């Protein structure tokens, strides 16, 4: 229920959808001859589109998320498992073509690959289910398995969790795998995008699962101020969308009791 509600809400709450809704409202007000309401609605749509597409607003919003957790200053000596969360592959082409197509969050997999090579005795836990409204696609765990085996990671090191549909389920469905690989003394590394790490750590902590954060896939420089940015509006829009979604996710997960802290820290 939570998964379906959250996905349905986001279909309308994401910036591009809000702009479209404001445009449609403006047109409706014009038809109804409510000129002031029409001007207000269309002005809000233009302003929103300008902010998310032609300024650095998205980077300003995403920076605090990315700066919340840092990679370990010293490499751990004994790693039992590396957990990578889904969200790094493109479901339709990967399933249809039998490949592993990566999206902008592909660093989740390349970072995990490096860690798997650095810690050859560690198990690699791949957590990711099927997409939402994607039709018949394989689980992302299976797509990730294809990626790692193609780079020489032995199949018997991989532990697949292909049923989770959100981050809360990532944690709960991998608990037994983590307990098995941890063996009481070895560290468990959690790999996900830096902007996604605060919510992920909050969820794992809530469920009593001890993991060491290993953020990757940075989108901001860490020193970005608010300014006009017309060089790449599509990238600006995508960054703003990711940031808004993650801030909303932090609030929703906290209000529904899935995390103890609104903004988990190191």
TrEMBL record:
Q: Where are the transmembrane segments?
A: 12-32, 39-62
Instruction: Give the record's keywords alphabetically.
Output: Membrane, Transmembrane, Transmembrane helix
Tell me which residues make up the DUF218 domain. 81-249
What are the GO cellular component annotations? Answer: plasma membrane
Q: Which Pfam families match?
A: DUF218 (PF02698)
The GO biological-process annotations, alphabetized, read as: Gram-negative-bacterium-type cell wall biogenesis; peptidoglycan metabolic process
This protein's superkingdom? Bacteria
Classification via PANTHER family = ENVELOPE BIOGENESIS FACTOR ELYC, INNER MEMBRANE PROTEIN, PROBABLE PERMEASE
What protein name is recorded for this chain? Uncharacterized SAM-binding protein YcdF, DUF218 family
- Species name: Devosia lucknowensis
